[in-house]
Amino acid sequence: MTTPEPGLESPGGLVGSELRDAWPFLDLHEKVEGFRLxxxxxxxxxxxxxxxxxxxxxxxxxxxxERQIWMRQLPPxxxxxxxxxxxxxxxxxxxxxxxxxxxxxxxxxxxxxxDAAGGLMSPRFARVRPDxxxxxxxxxxxxxxxxxxxxxxxIYVLDSAQHLLGxxxxxELFFAQPDLLVSxxxxxxxVKVRADLDQEHVSQIIAEHDLAAVPVVDEQGRMxxxxxxxxxxxxxxxxxxxxxxxxxxxxxxxxxxxxxxxxSMVGKRLPWLSVLFVGQFLTTAAMGYFEGQMARALVxxxxxxxIISSGGNSGAQASTLVIRAMGMGEVRLRDWWQVLRxxxxxxxxxxxVLGAIGLVRVLLWPxxxxxxxxxxxxxxxxxxxxxxxxxxxxxxxxxxxxxLLRRLGFDPASASAPFVATLSDVTGIVIYFSVATALLTGxxx
Amino acid sequence: MTTPEPGLESPGGLVGSELRDAWPFLDLHEKVEGFRLxxxxxxxxxxxxxxxxxxxxxxxxxxxxERQIWMRQLPPxxxxxxxxxxxxxxxxxxxxxxxxxxxxxxxxxxxxxxDAAGGLMSPRFARVRPDxxxxxxxxxxxxxxxxxxxxxxxIYVLDSAQHLLGxxxxxELFFAQPDLLVSxxxxxxxVKVRADLDQEHVSQIIAEHDLAAVPVVDEQGRMxxxxxxxxxxxxxxxxxxxxxxxxxxxxxxxxxxxxxxxxSMVGKRLPWLSVLFVGQFLTTAAMGYFEGQMARALVxxxxxxxIISSGGNSGAQASTLVIRAMGMGEVRLRDWWQVLRxxxxxxxxxxxVLGAIGLVRVLLWPxxxxxxxxxxxxxxxxxxxxxxxxxxxxxxxxxxxxxLLRRLGFDPASASAPFVATLSDVTGIVIYFSVATALLTGxxx
Lengths: 445, 445
Prior knowledge:
Two copies of one chain form a homodimer.
Chain A: E1 8-9, H1 14-22, H2 28-37, H3 40-49, H4 52-60, H5 64-71, H6 76-85, H7 91-96, H8 100-110, H9 117-120, E2 125-128, H10 134-143, E3 151-158, E4 164-169, H11 170-175, H12 182-185, E5 192-194, H13 199-209, E6 213-217, E7 223-228, H14 229-247, H15 262-289, H16 291-296, H17 299-302, H18 304-327, H19 336-364, H20 369-372, H21 376-407, H22 417-440
Parallel strand pairs in A: 2-3, 5-6
Antiparallel strand pairs in A: 3-4, 6-7
């Protein structure tokens, strides 16, 4: 991320972009007013560029006749998304605004989970038969209702039972010898996905193969629709946002920050914060357990935050790296052993360096000899040794927790930085005072 | 993120996908061997689907003649990316592998920053003149060298000085009356970006307007190239990865986790970890400053991790939410006041709830009356009051730090969860002991 926006130009789009900027700060009445002030040519672009939450809100403020006009502007996949987030009681009312053909398409899409390929796909793809000539195919495409095709970038070759036989790009067809058969021009090896594949994997596949669209098929290989890359950009952004919010220790907001009300925001943050808080009771209990050692050598207490926070920081690094690598498909469950070995090496090295800095810090800091009772070196060794173990432990726990969560069927991103930090706080106390007991009994303790 | 990959089908791609899976674990020799084992038809797809780091590595293992073949397979924007990451001394060698036309294109692209629109764009767009008829334009497009067009999805209408006058989608042209002029069919209001616009904003614009490609112009409005949505998917994923890694307190890895060597991994993590560690010296100093209070009422010490970690967790939540909202373009610098008001409300509420839990916790926990000297209620009140202030303070600092960093020209994502936690540790100690001094002097203190 970098500094503000230079160089964006959208001539004539002034009113639309102004309205977009002001949007989060307007009440419903002002939104409807603003929308009505747009030039007619701009209204459509503006409406289609709103996210689905804003579309629902705006539609609710419009009279039924206008509502119908705008619902019918939506491509079927977007209409299905919109109906999916409507309150249950309004769904059939919104469905009835569509024309019959679109309604059937949307009902079919609603059968799929919102975050699977089937829930993302559009049924409006360009199709041809394998035994047409290139020339016939182009004329046939020209006859296919204009509004009913999402993209002519790829054309799908289907048999009479809708089985997907091949794919041909419009460019290939356009530049092919006119009398070649479609079956001679098409590719019969291509990437396709099943309707139940989750959207994160769909986006990995589209990114990996640099596709503009990917066909979606059912179990029998029958064509169901296409997922286009512009829908995937939104998916990738959404998924990353969810991961980031979870890593920060929040339930996914599912709406822009400024549009989340106070109570709803508290509701998203309080659960994890309370769980972590109660989790810290364990740290408190551990502290209570070592109260005797603390009373005898109060100087040990001074280093507690320094030491336990290093474990938390090391753990936060490891967990976010592994969570993201899993999200990008770079690391899979079976790679856990390789990751563990890597983190053992990295954790030990990082712990060694921090331990060395800690050692110097304790030796050089002006500490009264009353406090350390002339055992500065032993104290420094205790701090340094604890740091090595705690930083190593943080890295290992942080890296392995996402694997454990995924293995148990949870989202690995729930191994948030605060969660890992809390876990390593309690173990950090235990490690620190165990090392202290081992090294200092008979001197400071 | 969810469970493993069901339903992905890529018939015939078996060997390619096997090689892709094994790739991170192979040495250079094995990679070259594996690549040679691919069916000729698969080699090209495989090579083009590798990321730019893997492409450079593989090319280095091939003999010069093959290297030239593969370099020439790359579209100019990808060739420029590849040359950009090569060691300086090899760049001209790689450039010389290209044919003259491509070399000129690549040299022009190398002039732009890698992460600006100019560094992402392809110069291979479809172009027509405004005074052609639709029919002439289609025939002209057919004549344009096939290999030289990145997409025919959009066609750009240029005057003789290369000024961008309008855009027409291939579909509009294809379905238009054959004798209409291009200038009658084209849109003259459209979104375009300047070559120096950074890639994050380019991706926001493409996502917001659901574009398949966006034209890039210079200051005089002359057409420079196009950025296509498939390049943007990669950008969005990269940017999110960088943000996530920074939020976790790491320098961006810039390569897949499993491909980063031990020393390089330490190099990415040690700097922040050391800075945070040295930062914690402040907390240690604060602890030292309150050593007198600790000696008098050791029971206060037991609650230190509980209290300071709550501030860190609250801060981590706030900072990640604000960082992501900034990255998505939902929150801008001028929104700081609105965010501050929101976080004051949220922080106070969260602090209130945690304070209440803390109050009950201290009152109910079996604590020896020796430790609390019968002042349980005052102790509980101290813990609860501190929690309210510290959680509030964490939320405010966490939310404002990204604004401050962006204002100063730094990346707001550097306000990582560990950074905010460290900041709130030291203030947490000061708040806690200040509250304790105010409430407990004369009783426990």
